[in-house]
Amino acid sequence: MLISGLTIINFTHVECIPILPLLQQRRPVIRDPVLNPHSSVHQSLQRWAMTWCRRDVAVEDVRDLGGHSGHTYAFRVVGPNIDEALVIRLAPAGVVHRGNTDVVRQAPLLRALYESGALVAAVREASNDPELFGVPYLIVTRLPGRPLIMGPEADSWLPAQERQHAYDLAAEQLACIHAVDVSKSLRDWEQARAPHDEINFWARALERSPEPQWVDAGAALRERLLASIPTEYTVGLCHGDFQTNNVLFSAGDGQLRVTGVVDWEIAHIGAIELDLAWLLMMNDSAAWHPVEQRGGLDLQRIVQSYRRVAKRPLTHIEWFWSLACYRIAAIAASNIRLHRSGRRRDESWERAAQSVPIMFARAHALLENQS
């Protein structure tokens, strides 16, 4: 295990973070084309902008971007010598703010990444003071580009023959992120998670699965993963949900490039191999039911793209790929339970239910390949 000034902590008993964002099939869509200037959000943003700029400016083009954990709005600040596109993320009201609901937690992470040259938004302000918006908030610059959506909801803005190149570029950017040394800049930000804690963290979700066979399958896979944890892995900054839904691209001037990486709410310190494995799993046709329309990519080429930039050995990727299957099965099982109980109705989860047994089978196959 390679560690740079970071401490491993057992987090088995930490309260589980909300997990819906991990399996979102599309980025939040604009709910309201433009908010009424008299809306409370617009007026609060205007007050914030006047204070932040210390001069007479106007807030324009406020748009509701929705969001799963809290609410997100895009807006512009316009005035003398300023015209800046920004995004505000508001923490959800009425809940304890921790994990992905703690929007202020992202500020030191984004600042450290931005200062390193990573393609992330610049932080303009982060505050736990509820005076302006009623909840804590994070305001960042709005990055250019658009995501590459996976699955049945995929759009066609990028030609099919360009998708492999896009994934190669995403893997290269992930390697750049993993190369950032946060042992000093984020020393007190969070303690590192060990792989066995990652496994146990998701066990409760599988134990509460709506399908009894998933409970047994999850327990069997959990024991097999625990018995085969690699002794060597690299501890560093993990995005937590690295997939092309969360990577922005631009094809301007006929050249495809990555313009940003977004949605850092579940970032953490841990085994960085899981980030790459997550990207592979999300596009592995052997891990999903055909209805999800995954695959069509050379996954080994994605690994090679990552390795070329990382310039370091990449071992035990099949084990972390198997862990990614276990993790996504737990997330799916939890959200399917919430859907069927009526607590969070979403018919798309019935579609996802078809993939859960396939995820378990794929995880076992990957462990067999490793051995």
What are the defining features of this structure?
371 residues, alpha+beta, Phosphorylase Kinase, domain 1, five-stranded antiparallel β-sheet, 12 strands, 37% helix, disordered N terminus
Please, what is the oligomeric state? single chain
Number of strands: 12
Distance between the termini: 19 Å
Order of helices and strands: EHEEEHEEEHEHHHEEEEHHHHH
Helix count, per DSSP? 11
Q: Give the second-level CATH assignment, the architecture of the largest domain.
A: Alpha-Beta Complex
CATH class type of the largest domain: Alpha Beta
Uncertain segments are: 1-31
- As a whole number of angstroms, the C-alpha radius of gyration is 21 Å
* Principal-axes shape call: globular
Number of domains: 2
Mean pLDDT: 88
Write the layout of secondary structure elements.
Layout: E1 8-9, H1 40-53, E2 58-66, E3 71-79, E4 82-90, H2 106-116, E5 123-127, E6 137-141, E7 146-147, H3 163-178, E8 192-193, H4 195-201, H5 203-207, H6 212-226, E9 235-238, E10 247-250, E11 257-261, E12 268-271, H7 273-282, H8 299-310, H9 317-341, H10 348-353, H11 356-370
Parallel strand pairs: 1-8
Antiparallel strand pairs: 2-3, 3-4, 4-6, 5-6, 7-10, 9-12, 10-11
Can you put this structure into words, describing what you see?
- It is a single chain.
- This protein has 371 residues and is of the alpha+beta class.
- It has two domains: 8-15 and 149-370, Aminoglycoside 3'-phosphotransferase, Chain: A, domain 2; 40-141, Phosphorylase Kinase, domain 1 (2-Layer Sandwich).
- The chain is 37% helix and 16% strand.
- The chain has helices spanning 40-53, 106-116, 163-178, 195-201, 203-207, 212-226, 273-282, 299-310, 317-341, 348-353, 356-370; strands spanning 8-9, 58-66, 71-79, 82-90, 123-127, 137-141, 146-147, 192-193, 235-238, 247-250, 257-261, 268-271.
- The strands form four sheets. The chain has a five-stranded antiparallel beta sheet with strand order 2-3-4-6-5, sandwiched between helices. The protein has a three-stranded antiparallel beta sheet with strand order 7-10-11, with helices on one face. A two-stranded parallel ribbon has the order 1-8.
- A hairpin with a 4-residue loop joins strand 2 and strand 3 (71-79).
- Helix 6 (212-226) runs parallel beside helix 11 (356-370) and helix 7 (273-282) packs across helix 9.
